[in-house]
């Protein structure tokens, strides 16, 4: 029987993060949801039966406090899922304001780095060969006009994944990423309802003929964090219905 692990999932209050948390719970792990929205993450945790912690991943002091709280309440972290990210602005390379771009960089790049660094230090301090799984995007490899700020931030997440993987391998720490295509979270489904031209346009780009469900993403994360992936590190696994093929 596999020993239960402590899994910290950032951006855990809803959408993909909540689905990932549920999948780890089903695997028998202890899960702690982390999110900048303290009320939302507490509500989600109560509904799922997990722990919760409020954290601003762009603030190193906030991250340090959150990790200390998790360790005090749940023991050392075994798995970090860097799911928190934003897709807050759109704009062409000739029109997007630098400050708008910076808001995405702060969360998606600096936030991922800050969480990775802080938890990796704890892995090393505890002598724990833990695992980190970052949520990237196939957009980091396949551009879409108007989405370059987000997509370039996810290309950086893939780079951080490889950087951390090569430097932490000597400590037995594995670092991988899952790169989804568009995922039908409640927010996305609201903005692109069934039958809408926008939904049809995205679906037409996917060889398997449908957008991913949250349940298509979570198993890949659990796999990369688990013993079946013990010899896998530094990869960014596309879960995209074949979109990168076209």
How would you characterize this protein structure?
This protein is an alpha/beta fold and 246 residues long. Helices cover 46% and strands 14% of the residues. It contains eight helices and seven strands; from the N terminus they run βαβαβαβαβαβαααβ. Strands 3-2-1-4-5-6-7 form a seven-stranded parallel sheet, sandwiched between helices. The mean pLDDT is 96.
Reconstruct the topology from this structure.
Elements: E1 6-10, H1 15-26, E2 30-35, H2 38-48, E3 51-54, H3 60-74, E4 79-82, H4 98-126, E5 131-135, H5 148-168, E6 174-180, H6 186-191, H7 197-203, H8 214-225, E7 236-239
Parallel strand pairs: 1-2, 1-4, 2-3, 4-5, 5-6, 6-7
Helix pairs in contact: 1-8, 3-4, 4-5
CATH superfamily: NAD(P)-binding Rossmann-like Domain
As an assembly, this protein is single chain
- CATH level 1 name: Alpha Beta
Average pLDDT rating: 96
Computed over alpha carbons, the radius of gyration is 17 Å
Main sheet attributes: strand count, strand direction, barrel closure: 7 strands, parallel
Helical percent range?
A: 40-55%
Biggest β-sheet: strands ordered side by side in the sheet: 3-2-1-4-5-6-7
Question: What would the principal axes of the Cα set say about the shape?
Answer: globular
Q: Tell me the total number of β-strands.
A: 7
User: What is the element string, with H for helices and E for strands?
Assistant: EHEHEHEHEHEHHHE
The CATH topology is given as Rossmann fold
Q: Number of folding domains?
A: 1
- Give the N-terminus to C-terminus distance in angstroms: 42 Å
As a percent range, the share of strand residues is 5-15%
Would you tell me the structural class of the helices and strands? alpha/beta
């Amino acid at each position: 029987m596999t020993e239960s692990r402590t899994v910290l999932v950032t951006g855990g209050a809803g959408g993909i993060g909540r689905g990932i948390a549920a999948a780890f719970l089903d695997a028998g792990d202890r899960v702690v949801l982390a999110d900048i929205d303290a009320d939302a993450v507490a509500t989600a945790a109560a509904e799922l039966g997990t722990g919760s912690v409020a954290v601003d991943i762009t603030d190193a002091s906030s991250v340090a406090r959150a990790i200390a709280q998790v360790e005090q309440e749940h023991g050392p972290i075994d798995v970090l899922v860097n799911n928190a990210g934003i897709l807050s602005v759109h704009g062409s390379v000739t029109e997007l304001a630098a400050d708008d771009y910076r808001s995405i960089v702060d969360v998606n790049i600096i936030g991922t780095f800050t969480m990775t660094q802080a938890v990796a230090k704890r892995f090393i301090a505890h002598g724990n060969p833990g695992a980190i799984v970052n949520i990237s995007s196939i957009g980091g490899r396949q551009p879409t006009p108007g989405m370059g700020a987000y997509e370039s931030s996810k290309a950086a997440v893939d780079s951080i994944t490889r950087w951390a993987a090569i430097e932490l391998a000597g400590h037995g720490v594995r670092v991988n990423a899952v790169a989804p295509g568009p995922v039908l979270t409640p927010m996305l489904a609201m903005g692109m309802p069934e039958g809408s031209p926008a939904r049809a346009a995205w679906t037409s780009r996917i060889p398997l003929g449908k957008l991913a469900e949250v349940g298509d993403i979570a198993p890949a994360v659990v796999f990369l964090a688990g013993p079946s992936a013990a010899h896998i590190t530094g990869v960014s696994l596309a879960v995209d219905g074949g979109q990168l093929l076209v």
